[in-house]
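User: We ran a pulldown and think these components assemble together. Before we commit to crystallization trials, I'd like a predicted model of the whole complex to look at. Sequences follow.
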Amino acid sequence: MKKSRDGEHNPGRRKFLKGVGIAGAGAAIADHLWEEKTEAKEEQSTPQTVSGATKISLQVNGQARSVQVEPRTTLLNALRNHLEPAVTGPKLVCDVGTCGACTVLLDGKPVYSCLVLAVDATNKKITTVEGLGSPEKPNGVQAAFVEHDALMCGFCTPGFVTTISAYLKKNPNPSLDEVREACKGNFCRCGTYPRVFEAALAAAKAAI
Amino acid sequence: MPQQQQPTPSPSPKPKKKIRVPRVVNGVEQMVEIEVDEDSGPGWGPNDKHTLLNRRITRVDGSLKAAGAAHYTYDQRLPGMLYGRILRCPHGHARVTKLDTEAAAKIPGVKAIVPAPLTELRFAGAPVAAVAAVTPEIAGDALRAIKVTYEVLPHVVHADAAMKPDAPKVVADENNVQEKAKNGDPAKVEAAFATADAIVEAEYITQRVHHACLETHGMVVDYRGGNSATIYASTQGTFTIPADAAKELGLEQSAVVSLVEHMGGGFGSKFGIGIEGMFACRLSKETKAPVKLMLTRYDEFVMAGNRSGSLQKMKAGVKNDGTIVALQAKQYRLGGIGQGSQAGQPYIYRMGDTYREIYALHTNEDSAIAMRAPGHPQASFAVESLVDELAYKIKMDPVAFRKKNLRDEVYHRQLDRGAKEIGWSRRNPIAGGNPGPLKRGMGCAVGTWGGGGNNQCKVDLTISRDGSVLVACGTQDLGTGTRTYTRAIVAEEFGLGMNDVKEQIGSSKLGSANPSGGSTTAASLAPSVKDAAIKARVMFVERVAPLLGNAKPEEVVFADGKVSAKGQSLTWKQACAALPAAGVKSHGEWRADLQSRGVHGVCFAEVEVDVETGHIKPIKMVHVQDGGLPLNRLTLESQINGGMIQSLGQALYEGRVMDAQLGLQLNPGFGDYKLPGCLEMPELVPIIDDDDKREAVIGIAEGCIIPALGAIANAVFNATGLRIRELPITPDKILMGTKV
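Assistant: Here's a predicted model for the assembly, 948 residues in total across the polymer chains.
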């Protein structure tokens, strides 16, 4: 990929990114998943100016992964389109932070990875659905999803699994209403909600 | 005299019979006549005698999906792959007079730009051109840099405006309103109205809703300039891809393979390569590089189809004893630039003398396309609302009233079952009669569908000497659990566990299969799988009988991983070791007697309406569904839940909103187009009607999405006394109704 030249019509790739504004906004929107307010750690990172394609290092599922991205590349697209091999558990569904299918954990907290810039995730531990368990060794939530048939086409599933896995760490023994509240930022179209709730409650029960 | 030579007798042909079966073309069922064998083989046996089927089997691909390891089309990434994006028309109706791609082509990383085949664009969102670039971000830059000059033409996007004689024409020189059918004798109906004790005349409107598949439409075309190509497609029809893709790529159809490993939802919207697939092929052909073109969410809303809207003017007459004597219906299908769809009234009711007219009404909007039970929820909503109005008018219980006018006894038992489950006896028969601002109410409705199969599925089954079992067919799993029941049918036949059998699907290199539309998949595939299993069993028994005291075929029992006869028993592996080197291979063909068609469903809903805010809270929904032999109760219940939830969305939340002036959709994203979510979920009770004893597979996906619209609207009426005849039933409509 060639670097962009100055002067051409190319708004997306001009030097535009200063500091952390957009990533902060992304985290804030995903934060509505939580009832209590948490301190936004993003504000502590050092503002710097980046332009063109840049090599960065991301800590994905416990591994340091080097990747070349543009400043505007979202964490979601970095994982899916640039990391080699790709990490495709988080799904691109709306790309504007409305559906939750791209949910990943940043330092254990769920965020919509389509609203986080890759360059703003360099100092965070990124956990995707793949980092929570594998088909052979699923975590409790993943196992409960299979057991309770909490998935159909499966495209929303990684987002729900990630959101619920993080929530159960925070609240190990939730009520049905708390589970609903915890995953209200995730959409499903096939209609798995009731069984998603069942699976979350069963996973919580099994872990206690 | 020399004896006349007799012609060599050909093997006596199996007796054949002709039957009519559904074929799906672009998601819509058409009935065709085919010939099948008169005599058939062993059946499924009684529904309550299965060891795997009709039980709760967890999905075989569940752990892959839950761990993010299932690979979808959207997840494909190939070396050197380019990303495609589509430029869309910003006007309700326009002609492209100039397409200047010079600046866009100069952007580093942009590899190809191709124009759309049509220059007259009849809706906002119609494709103008497509680009391929090394990243999706750069493809977006290129779209912004393309300069298009449009000759803007007059448009009309609202049905009432489109009906006016001076409305802008959607298609030049053609009326926006087109007559499609007239059935019945209007004079007879008029006479019947004269015998009625009460008459209801009303107009019902259903909005256009979106499929909103979470995986958008699109494909990855892996073509690098050679003589062959591989297409990864998010499709409901593996075999609907190669022919058109080959045409676009200039290749022989046999050199194009389509793969559908997993797909993220279709609901009727994904057949064939589509305009996005056409662009992907053209871009790949031009660049000789793999191209991935998945629609953006915005694209998905504005150009990937929607459920046909409807406008239905109905008039019905009823006698005081509850007999409906006449119906007159004027039905408009609101399909945008397309034809739309709508089942004819009086849908499934017996209404004495009936007369109906059906019209297609065109607007400058993206074409409606097939969506889960095309045309049925619309017709059902109107007739179920009308039936409810008639029942209240003559002060008859809506359940009893329905029974009175439904011939089929299956509905009667299902209505009783649903009424019991929802607690119908708690319902206040006086609409809006409960005190206080939070008013609860209940409603019900019924629905039907075909769900039969056809003879398009060809299944190959291999049992190897090492004991491994592979069943293969090119079909696709939309999230319905196709993989799981395919495996279960074979495992059950041989007394094996679910993990002892593997299945292979989603490839056009495998045996052919029908596209998954019209709930035809299960009833097409399962019989072919069963046939393959039965044939393999016969061959298998032939080989192992000598090891079991020369047992007769009917004496050999397959159970619990063992093959037994005459008091002797072999483990599955021991038995398989007796097979020839190539193992046992069988080919399964469809058998009409292993499936059937015709399903019944009833839905009951309870809602709570806050008449001070207009907020409607769904409390509980019950859906009772028959469907012959349930292949897998767990996934079947999930599908019934899905039908209720999607209906709930259409009843209360969803709807395409168009701006009349600009001709644009105002809510093309999940931020503005409201899908039912976690907080809206009522208690959902999916009930499989086990009183259906048919030992036959029948599809139910469509059946269970039909009646809920009417059930919810009728519950809102029972709660409030407000008859909302236009969907979605939003708080504003409640408030407008309560303010006198």
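Chain B has a mean pLDDT of 96. That may be worth checking against your pulldown data before setting up trials.

User: Thanks, that helps.
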